[in-house]
Design a protein that fits this description.
Structural class: alpha/beta
Bound molecules: NADP nicotinamide-adenine-dinucleotide phosphate
Strand order of the largest sheet: 7-6-5-4-8-3-9-10
Number of helices: 9
Radius of gyration: 21 Å
CATH superfamily of the largest domain: Dihydrofolate Reductase, subunit A
CATH class of the largest domain: Alpha Beta
Shape: elongated
Largest sheet: 8 strands, mixed
CATH topology of the largest domain: Dihydrofolate Reductase, subunit A
Distance between the termini: 35 Å
Helix content: 25-40%
Strand content: 15-25%
């Protein structure tokens, strides 16, 4: 409702300022507002041109448009792979299968997302931060999916001073661990059934638009089966990155 009010006052401000012409890239698909603002501007005698660089505007807003039209967040699966098809080193760490340039790209990608998801194993093996590492002041909500909750007591994700962390688990799993994480400032939510779609639904209900999946192969396989992705990012070992 707040954003609808903001739109309304924006149109009011344009009319009050005596603006002669407004150029609209793409019409907002939200049925609560779609085309309404344009009519209001036209009624006030303002010339309105619609559809300039429409495709580029849609791409810029693809997550918001997807959320609005399909009532679910826009999912992106990102994975890094060596040229011989490995997603981690022999010691089980994935941060070093790419390059500094690729990691910078990932930090930029995170800065455009509302949440980033990993599975319990990636917390145990990589102890990641999942932040944008100063690429941007915006950090996505950090999300962990873990059924067993056999997670370390100390982890970078449990430091929630600057960026919040949300752990999804299943009802009845490791209640002591749930309490311990909550006491550390981590939000813990136990779902009846911990599935990728249930998690996406919850993130949608929280108002999120763009969700980045940065999990390992186990959770990625479970997620692919439920098709929560619209885009795939395959990072290559060099600074090149392919967006499919
Ligand atoms: N190259 C890359 O892009 C990349 C990215 C991330 C990770 N990795 C590497 O991947 C390795 C970890 O592999 P992984 O595949 O085991 O990690 P993962 O997919 O991140 O985690 C798997 C865990 O996800 C949890 N989970 C929760 N709900 C699930 C569901 N519905 N289906 C399946 N899993 C669910 C379980 O945690 P609980 O056991 O806690 O219940 C499961 O053990 C690490 O070596 C890491 O370095 C690579």
């Amino acid at each position: 409702m707040q954003s609808l009010r903001a739109y309304s006052s924006l149109y009011g401000a344009l009319i009050a300022a005596g603006v002669a012409k407004v150029v609209v890239g793409a019409i907002d698909p939200d049925p609560r507002v779609s085309g309404g603002g344009i009519e209001r501007l036209k009624s006030a005698g303002i010339e309105v041109v619609v559809g300039v660089e429409e495709e580029a505007c849609r791409q810029l807003n693809e997550a918001f448009i997807h959320r609005t039209l399909y009532k679910k967040p826009f999912g992106i699966l990102k994975y890094a792979m060596t040229l011989d098809g490995k997603i981690a080193t022999t010691t089980g760490h994935s941060a070093w299968v790419t390059s500094k340039e690729s990691r910078h790209l990932v930090h930029q990608l995170r800065s455009t997302c509302d949440a980033v998801i990993i599975g319990g194993n990636t917390v145990r093996r990589d102890n990641p931060y999942l932040t944008t590492h100063q690429v941007s002041s915006h950090n996505p909500l950090r999300v962990v999916m873990s059924r067993r909750l056999d997670l370390p007591t100390q982890a970078n994700l449990w430091d929630t001073q600057e960026v919040p962390t949300l752990v999804f688990t299943e009802v009845g799993s490791a209640c002591d661990k749930q309490k311990q994480l909550s006491a550390q400032g981590v939000e813990v939510l136990a779902l009846k059934s911990l599935t990728p779609l249930a998690v996406m639904q919850n993130l949608y209900d929280r108002g999120l638009s763009c969700v980045l999946w940065e999990c390992g192969g186990t959770l990625a396989a479970a997620a692919i089966a439920q098709k929560p992705f619209k885009k795939l990012w395959h990072l290559l070992p060099q600074k090149l990155s392919a967006v499919v």
